[in-house]
From TrEMBL:
The keyword Ligase applies. GO terms for cellular component: cytoplasm. GO terms for molecular function: biotin--[biotin carboxyl-carrier protein] ligase activity. NCBIfam families: birA_ligase. Keywords: Ligase. This is BirA family transcriptional regulator, biotin operon repressor / biotin-[acetyl-CoA-carboxylase] ligase. Residues 10-187 form the BPL/LPL catalytic domain.
Length: 248
């Protein structure tokens, strides 16, 4: 079941009318494909592209990745938030919290801003990009990958963590429905995501090392999340972007 083929009709039957899911067998990147549509004005809120295989998957900080066919859940979706753009930093955090909620039975947590960890190993990551008046969010979840198929030793998969009865169709539907519920409330002004995210975030209260895009490194204790989704350190620094390493 972990490597069952994606089925458009099954996925759409399990999601609300907000979502319109398209399935492709192979693509360069679901993120690139949907972003291209967004730039051309050929996309609507709720459009989703998911693929069995990506030739050049895209992650945060301009990284690329590749997973064996059918071994991961790879998808991107388009949103058009109503809140002011200064608040849009929360969208990727909402996406991370949604995945962690769905994977709660595996004790999944969020490493700020949106890496999903199980036993401190990465099982899922995502990217969020603004295109015009909307946002394209791309998510990858390691589902059926074996130890030998993992890209790095610090990664894991649901199969490795004991999952046996998950198929990617239901997993995608569950993540989309969870995201819709949280996002819709947030977009209407509800701030309860702040508490939910904090309850799922394993970074808070932890000594961390921040690797910034400009190669600077800073250490500190992660104290809380700002109103704009930034990570606040005990030094008072507001981290907007960077790789976080949990120090023990």
């Amino acid at each position: 079941m972990l490597r069952a083929a994606l089925d458009k009709s099954v996925i759409n039957s399990l999601t609300t009318q907000y979502w319109r899911v398209s399935v492709v067998d192979v693509t360069t990147s679901t993120q690139t494909a949907l972003a291209t549509r967004a730039i051309a004005g050929k996309v609507k809120p709720g459009d989703v592209i998911t693929a069995n295989f990506q030739r050049a998957g895209r992650g945060r900080m301009s990284r690329t990745f590749e997973a064996p066919k059918n071994s991961a859940l790879l998808f991107s979706f388009y949103l058009k938030p109503q809140r002011k753009k200064e608040d849009w930093g929360w969208i990727s955090l909402i996406a991370g919290a949604s995945v962690a909620q769905v994977l709660k039975k595996y004790n999944a947590t969020v490493k700020w801003p949106n890496d999903i960890l199980i036993k401190e190993k990465k099982v899922s990551g995502l990217i969020s990009e603004i295109h015009g008046e909307g946002v394209v969010v791309g998510i990858g979840i390691n589902v059926g990958m074996t130890i030998g198929e993992l890209p790095v030793p610090t990664a894991t998969s649901l199969a490795i963590e004991g999952a046996t009865n998950i198929d990617r169709n239901h997993l995608l539907a569950n993540v989309l429905n969870e995201f819709e519920s949280i996002f819709t409330s947030w977009d209407l002004g509800d701030e309860s995501i702040t508490g939910l995210y904090a309850s799922l975030c394993s970074t808070l209260g932890t000594k961390v090392q921040i690797h910034y895009p400009n190669d600077l490194i800073e250490k500190g204790i992660a104290m809380c999340i700002s109103a704009r989704g930034e990570l606040i350190l005990d030094s008072g620094t507001h981290v907007q972007a960077g790789d976080v390493v949990h120090l023990r």
